[in-house]
Design goal:
1 helix, 7% helix
Length: 124
C-alpha cells in the first residue's frame, strides 16, 4: 500500500497552476494511466489546455468551474463542480478550470490516458 497525498506532493508551476505529476511516486510504473495533482490558487484559473488524452478530473477539495471554450453547447457558461465531483473531458476537448473560491485553493486529481492505449490494454 502506498499513500498518495496532494498536500505532501512535490508541486511545480505549469499552466498558471501548481502540478504534482505522479511520476514522483514509485507506484507510477504500475498504473495503466497517468495522473497528477492540480492546485489552483484562490480566484485563479488554469490556462486553456487541449491534449489527445481523455481526462477524468476529480475535485478533491474546493469548488471549480470547468469551461470548454470550443463547445458551442456550453457558450452560455461553465459547468460547476463541487468537492467529490468528477468531470470527464474527451480527448482534444479544450478546457479551462477556474477556482470558484476567492480564499481557498482548489485541489483536483487529474487521471488521463490515450483512448487507443486503454482499448488495447483491455483486449489483452
Amino acid at each position: 500500500m502506498e499513500k498518495l497525498n496532494a498536500v505532501t506532493a512535490r508541486l511545480t508551476a505549469e499552466n498558471q497552476i501548481q502540478i504534482g505529476r505522479w511520476t514522483q511516486y514509485a507506484i507510477n510504473d504500475q498504473l495503466p494511466f497517468n495522473a497528477m495533482w492540480c492546485v489552483i490558487p484562490p480566484g485563479g484559473s488554469s490556462r486553456r489546455d487541449c491534449h489527445d488524452e481523455v481526462e477524468l478530473a476529480v475535485v478533491v477539495d474546493g469548488a471549480a468551474d470547468f469551461e470548454t471554450p470550443d463547445d458551442p453547447a456550453q457558450a452560455a457558461g461553465r459547468t460547476e463542480a463541487s468537492q467529490g465531483t468528477a468531470i470527464l473531458l474527451n480527448g482534444n476537448e479544450a478546457h479551462v478550470i477556474h477556482n470558484r473560491s476567492a480564499t481557498e485553493p482548489l485541489v483536483l486529481l487529474s487521471v488521463y490516458w490515450l483512448p487507443e492505449t486503454a482499448r488495447t490494454e483491455t483486449r489483452t
